[in-house]
Design goal:
The protein is of the alpha/beta class and 355 residues long. The protein has 2 domains: 219 residues, Aspartate Aminotransferase, domain 2 (3-Layer(aba) Sandwich), CATH 3.40.640.10; 117 residues, Aspartate Aminotransferase, domain 1, CATH 3.90.1150. It is built from 12 helices and 12 strands.
Length: 355
């Protein structure tokens, strides 16, 4: 039985050469490679500057601190997302106001954001989910600071604009299985140099003109940045491969059983995840869990796109779209190392196990 992993980092000789060069240089902590990676990412997205940090979660926290978010403030974010945005809000002492998602795109519902806004709302964290941009046009019209979370959507477009160029600040994650990986790592990007300087002051405490209790040791290393530079040089190829595999899934999976990702007009999808909704055969979250177990037993590793919606942790009611996604959506194997043969095998088993 051939095992088909849900996700896998795409690493090769380019990354190996880059790491060896850094090791031979003797400069392994934050140095010139970090600066090169920052410049490359800013240029790729189309922003003036960037600050590399130790993780995507740290990037979110420092972005909030740079905006002055703290005690007494609230920050709007979706429930259907990993816990990192919620944790970042907690760490700055603010309150997270959770809102439901759009049921077809899995992204923030702008109307729910409008209703959740209060006089204490200081920012909206906008995760672009699974490779599809959120409705930035509608969110921008709300006239609130947006923190775009591009951990899953580098290279995507919304109404002719690159994702990451609309918000006041943009954050990225370079975890091992992201579109572009450095093992661990993150970045804050912006056109506002004042905000970027605040992030730099928070990233490290050494050689600062004064003591800053919010500063820490949150740097990326040159070893990680070298991998990032090598990955960035291949990102276009990675995205092309993801798009081709997604098209193959669309051809192989019957639409009356598996609802494929929706791509609204004016947006492009980069397929960090290929998330389908099961229209037949399952009636509950427990049955979905059983289905995922049967697939794993046959060597196809599929997962819930979000481990658990945030409102479930907090025991909050009235998140129907997030609840529906939690009980019917699954993420299929998709990464640049995946072969077309593996996609065909996975699609066949996905259908067999529903009968």
């Amino acid at each position: 039985m051939t095992f088909i992993p849900h996700s896998k980092p795409s690493l090769g000789p380019e990354e190996l050469r880059a790491v060896i060069e850094v090791l031979q240089s003797g400069q392994i902590t934050a140095g010139p490679m970090v600066a090169q990676f920052e410049r490359g990412m800013a240029a790729y997205i189309g922003l003036q500057g960037a600050v590399a940090v130790s993780s995507g979660t740290v990037a979110l926290e420092l972005a909030l601190r740079a905006l002055g978010v703290g005690h007494g403030d609230n920050v709007i974010l979706p429930s259907y997302v990993c816990s990192a945005p919620w944790l970042a809000v907690q760490r700055v002492g603010a309150q997270a106001r959770l809102v439901d998602i759009n049921s077809t795109t899995y992204n923030l519902d702008p109307q729910k954001v409008r209703k959740a806004r209060t006089s204490r709302t200081r920012a909206v964290i906008v995760p672009h989910m699974f490779g599809l941009p959120a409705d930035l046009t509608s969110l921008q019209a709300l006239d609130m600071p947006l923190i775009e979370d591009c951990a899953q959507t580098l290279g995507a477009m919304e109404q002719g604009r690159a994702v990451g160029t609309v918000g006041t600040l943009t954050v990225c994650s370079f975890y091992a299985t992201k579109l572009l990986c450095t093992g661990e790592g993150g970045m804050v990007l912006s056109n506002d140099e004042v905000l970027l300087e605040r992030v730099r002051a928070l990233r490290e405490y050494d050689k600062a003109p004064s003591l800053n209790t919010s500063a820490g040791n949150c740097k990326l290393t040159d070893l990680q940045a070298a991998i990032g530079v090598a990955q960035l040089n291949q990102l276009g190829e990675f995205l092309d491969k993801r798009s081709a595999l997604a098209a193959l899934y669309r051809d192989l999976l019957p639409a009356e059983v598996f609802t494929a990702p929706v791509v609204p007009a004016g947006r492009t999808h980069v397929y960090y995840r290929f998330v389908v909704r099961l229209m037949k055969g399952l009636q509950s979250a427990d049955e979905l869990t059983d289905y995922l177990s049967r697939l794993a037993h046959r060597g196809v590793q599929c997962r819930r796109p979000v481990f658990r919606p945030l409102h479930r942790y907090l025991d909050l009611p009235d998140f129907p779209a997030s609840d529906e996604a939690d009980s019917s959506a699954i993420s299929l194997p998709l990464h640049p190392s995946l072969t077309e043969e593996a996609v065909r095998q996975a699609a066949h088993i996905l259908q067999e196990e529903l009968h």
